[in-house]
């Protein structure tokens, strides 16, 4: 989703028959402008720093609504913390490399990997609707310390 400006965000909410509360708009704006993969607590803390009036419970409810309506994606990197990012259109797809030491997340796209996944799906007569790839290992900084 590449919508910008509060007016257009409100229209997107209206088009999806959702109430455009200030809290929902604040959460969505934060995720749309952030390149990091944030968990609910990090979203809460960032909104507090911006002097936004929002509770943790509202953050969790809002995130579920945004996921349900495909505004954001919920990501599980296996560390017990669900993270969120803006939902991309299919032509903006990317995958993730996750450092097991520091938690750094590196986004990447590789057309050869995408093509191979399509070939594997075709070989098994499988219609792939979407996929998520996470590669776990060490970032370059953490690998130096090993």
Set down the secondary structure blueprint.
Elements: H1 6-15, H2 22-33, E1 38-39, H3 40-49, H4 56-68, E2 72-76, E3 82-86, E4 95-99, E5 105-108, H5 111-123, E6 134-137, H6 140-144
Parallel strand pairs: 4-6
Antiparallel strand pairs: 1-3, 2-3, 4-5
Key attributes of the depicted protein:
three-stranded antiparallel beta sheet; three-stranded mixed beta sheet; Arc Repressor Mutant, subunit A; 6 helices; Dna Ligase, domain 1; 146 residues; alpha+beta
Number of strand elements: 6
CATH class of the largest domain: Mainly Alpha
What is the overall pLDDT average?
A: 85
How does the helix and strand content classify structurally? alpha+beta
Under CATH, the topology of the largest domain is which? Arc Repressor Mutant, subunit A
Domain count, please report it: 2
**CATH architecture call of the largest domain:** Orthogonal Bundle
C-alpha-based Rg, rounded: 17 Å
Measured as a percent range, the helix fraction is: 40-55%
Order of strands, widest sheet? 1-3-2
Order of helices and strands: HHEHHEEEEHEH
Q: Which residues form runs of ≥5 with pLDDT under 50?
A: none
Number of helices: 6
Q: CATH superfamily of the largest domain, called what?
A: Winged helix-like DNA-binding domain superfamily/Winged helix DNA-binding domain
Distance between the termini: 40 Å
> The biggest beta sheet, please?
3 strands, antiparallel
Percentage of residues in strands: 15-25%
Shape: flat
């Amino acid at each position: 989703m590449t919508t910008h400006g509060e007016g257009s965000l409100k229209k997107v909410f209206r088009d999806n028959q959702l109430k455009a509360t200030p809290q929902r708009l604040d959460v969505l704006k934060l995720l749309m402008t952030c390149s990091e993969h944030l968990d609910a607590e990090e979203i809460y803390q960032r909104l507090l720093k911006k002097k936004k009036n929002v509770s943790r419970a509202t953050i969790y409810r809002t995130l579920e609504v945004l996921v349900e309506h495909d505004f954001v994606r919920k990501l599980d990197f296996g560390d017990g913390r669900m993270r969120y990012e803006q939902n991309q259109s299919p032509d903006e797809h990317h995958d993730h490399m996750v450092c097991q030491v520091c938690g750094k997340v590196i986004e990447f796209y590789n057309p050869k990997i995408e093509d191979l996944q399509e070939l594997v799906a075709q070989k098994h007569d499988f219609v792939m609707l979407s996929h998520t790839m996470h590669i776990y290992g060490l970032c370059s900084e953490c690998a130096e310390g090993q």
